[in-house]
Amino acid sequence: MTGVVGTGPHRLRVALLQVAYGDDEPLADRVERVSQWIRGLERADLVVLPELWAHGGFASATWETTAEPINGPIIEQMTAVARDAGVWLHAGSIIERAAENGDQGAEGRGLWNTSVLLSPHGTVHKTYRKIHRFGFGDGEPRLLEAGTELAVAELAHAGRADRIGLATCYDLRFPELFRELGNLGVDVIVLPAAWPMPRVEHWRLLGRARALENQTWVLQCNTAGTHSGIEMGGHSQVVSPTGEVVAELGADEGVLFADIDLSLVASVRANFPVLADRRM
Description:
Elements: E1 11-18, H1 27-39, E2 46-48, H2 60-66, H3 73-85, E3 88-97, E4 111-118, E5 124-129, H4 140-143, E6 151-157, E7 160-166, H5 175-183, E8 188-192, H6 200-214, E9 217-221, E10 226-227, E11 230-231, E12 237-239, E13 245-248, E14 254-261, H7 263-271
Parallel strand pairs: 1-2, 2-3, 7-8, 8-9
Antiparallel strand pairs: 1-14, 3-4, 4-5, 6-7, 9-12, 10-11, 12-13
Helix pairs in contact: 1-3
Domain CN hydrolase: 12-262
InterPro entries: C-N_Hydrolase, C-N_Hydrolase_sf, UPF0012_CS
Family: Belongs to the carbon-nitrogen hydrolase superfamily. NIT1/NIT2 family.
């Protein structure tokens, strides 16, 4: 567990849960284990889980059978956890199945990699369907629909409404998405991932770049362990608007706490107004 304390008056306490898992842990057992973990956490305003921590980030062979709608068992249990703990909960992402007789997507697959932000009242506050699908023609591009819309949430906290942008894993390699989120006035970008160990240095570097070039906080929550023959990279990190990594985990399962100063976004942009010089 790592912590950092912000110095400004506008603070948000975040907890990133770097979940480790293997192929031998049943989905339902993992959901229950993580649920109890969240309920036992020390105080936080926003808790973040990784991408596909329940379904398996590289378990594409089982996605079609384990997929469920937004109101399915996983998110139903997570909403109860958010309500019980009284926290904003970014529940990572799930393999979302289209509602019966609902829109099946442009390619007719009816499956998405969908991130879900839950309110402390136990309601679905915002969803984001991953726009950039990883796999180079296999995995996500073969099985899942691509998301088409950016997602920005208003996170009510301590009498304020903080603007939170949502992105997922492979999106990190596409700076134009983050620029558009910046244009929408976000203070924080939350990025759950299932990023493998062989490319973990890309993960660390690109997170710093996205934070620095947009002068915003970036919260990167990755998975750990090994599943589907893939060793996951861990190294969840909190990056400030100056591109500084202010808190980071290693490769093992753990929780990363940070008190982030959201007023730093405005002061960094005022002191070094690089964004005002954009020509494109």
